[in-house]
Amino acid sequence: MLVRYRDGMNESPPADVADVLAAVLNTDNPVHVALRRQVPHLSVRARCTCGCGTAYFDLDTSDVEPAPTSPSTVVAAEAQLVTEAGECPGEVLVSTQDGYLAWLEVCSWSDDIEVTLAAARHWLQTRS
Ligand SMILES: [Zn+2]
To answer: Which residues contact 74 (CB under 8 A, 6 or more apart)?
Structure first.
């Protein structure tokens, strides 16, 4: 089930989404460069209601250039999450459709460690 936001409520991505995208799209790879330029134009259309923080995007494609990915849906970027204790409880995946940011998925592999977008943001920002 998804939480839907009213049109116009979110003109730019919330800070948690923007920070995680910045951490994951952090290379000079042309795909990452193009996707970083799309982030300011992004809004969150819906979020997974289980609390994981997985977010589905809306993007006005008239404002931005598509990334040079293959057409269709691909995982354009991913980052493994590593806790302070060195455990790997999950990962975040950034998917694109036709070169445009489509959704950010927070995946949990752990039964003991809660993996959310907020936790992912913390772990990505504290990694060395
Ligand atoms: Zn979820």
So the answer is: 95, 96
Q: What is the pTM of this model?
A: 0.88
Task: Tell me if 25 sits within 8 A of 75, measured CB to CB.
Answer: no
Per-residue pLDDT of 72-99, as tens digits, reads 999 999 999 999 999 999 999 999 999 9
Q: 48 CA distance to ligand 1 centroid (A)?
A: 4
List the shell of residues around ion ligand 1, using CB closer than 5 Å: 48, 50, 52, 54
- With CA atoms as reference, report the closest residue to 35 among 11, 62, 64: 64
Q: What is the tally of structural domains in the chain?
A: 1
Q: How far is the CA of 106 from the centre of ligand 1 (A)?
A: 7
**Owning domain of residue 54:** 2-126
* Pairing of β 73-81 and β 55-59: unpaired
Cα 28 to middle of ligand 1, angstroms = 30
